[in-house]
Amino acid sequence: MDGDVSLARYAALGTDSLDRDGVTMRFLHTADWQLGMTRHFLDDDAQPRYTAARVEVIGRLGKIAAEQGCEFILVCGDVFESNHLSLRVIKRSLEAMGALDIPIYLLPGNHDPLDAASVYRNQAFVSACPANVHVLDGTDVVRPVEGVELIGAPWFSKHPNRDLVAQALNQHAEEPAAQGIVRIVAGHGIVDVLSPDRDDASVISFSDLEAAVSQRRAHYIALGDRHSFTNVSDSGFTWYPSAPEVTDFDDVEINSGHVLVVDMADPSAPKVESHAVGQWRFITLREEFSSDHDVERVLTILREIPDKERTVLRYGFTGTLSLVAKARLDAGLESLAEVFAALNPWRRHMDLAVYVDDEQLADLGVGGFIAPAVKELNELAREAEDPAARDALSLLYRLSGGVR
């Protein structure tokens, strides 16, 4: 990436390796828990399970932190889906955090900013907040453990008009960190080199981050907001961990469902290791049908997907099928929909033509006043490529006993 600090430049700056009696300083970097999130494509059965999963992942984070010897957990923004949540979501979330024997630092982000309606100022949060949970509600330096300075850049509104990370650096990291001190900056938002909107005043300046690290004013930049696991710099000082549980489909989020264990024993060269913790998946399946044989191939793909109860799948099908094959496909999809968390067509990527020959129409075995309706549906499906007519013929074929 243009502008990255090279490892050679780091070597030229010298090292600030900590003398902590041989003990490695590690912390867990995570973000975008978005507790209380709902998804419109989940039904009344799947949504409660998905909501619970977003809370349950906190326990898995605590287990990784304990196994890896982490000294604290840093959550870089969007801890909650919004500032308007049920008391149940707030209290269950805090209960899960309180069960971990490790300090947890929460940074407000764009979903849960420190505005007048902030969840962090809600009496339910204040009264139930466990002793190990701390909100980074300002840019003052926080010292989670000896030898570590943590500088947060919280959001105070949904639409800041400045780079909050740069502001925090300028206020509290004007000078290089003292010898033996690790300085970590926690921010939320998109870095300008990854943003499609470079004119957005709130985007984070990568060149400012680069300068801060090269001048040893900061050793690691922990970010949130991007739900895809991302190493922003080749030298490894700026990372997005992704959301611990997936929030969007896999063509949008890349390698979601991770957290990062950050080893700062040598502040000039952070060691970052990702750990998969997510249990849900949102999959996009795009398939082209060139023959009726493709129906069984695609249904086999769907049948072999594991953990269907925690899998949301949207499909976009193109190509051409006979009426018989289309009916068989519909029957298979209908059966599988009962075991997936959600199985839905991706409407704008559906372009599946159906052809009907006279023999297949004869198989319907309809007569009387129904026969003219079938003929009209067939004409609409063929000539107007009407999807409703196509689906109606497919359903009629199934109801007539053509697919069992």
What's the short version?
With 404 residues, the chain is α/β, with parallel strands linked by helices. The chain has helices at residues 7-13, 46-67, 87-98, 123-128, 164-172, 206-214, 293-303, 323-336, 358-364, 370-384, 387-399, and strands at 26-30, 73-76, 104-107, 133-135, 141-142, 148-152, 182-188, 220-224, 230-231, 238-240, 258-263, 271-276, 281-289, 311-322, 342-345, 351-355.
Set down the secondary structure blueprint.
Layout: H1 7-13, E1 26-30, H2 46-67, E2 73-76, H3 87-98, E3 104-107, H4 123-128, E4 133-135, E5 141-142, E6 148-152, H5 164-172, E7 182-188, H6 206-214, E8 220-224, E9 230-231, E10 238-240, E11 258-263, E12 271-276, E13 281-289, H7 293-303, E14 311-322, H8 323-336, E15 342-345, E16 351-355, H9 358-364, H10 370-384, H11 387-399
Parallel strand pairs: 1-2, 2-3, 3-4, 6-7, 7-8, 8-10, 13-14, 14-15, 14-16
Antiparallel strand pairs: 1-11, 5-6, 9-10, 11-12
Helix pairs in contact: 2-3, 7-8, 8-11, 10-11
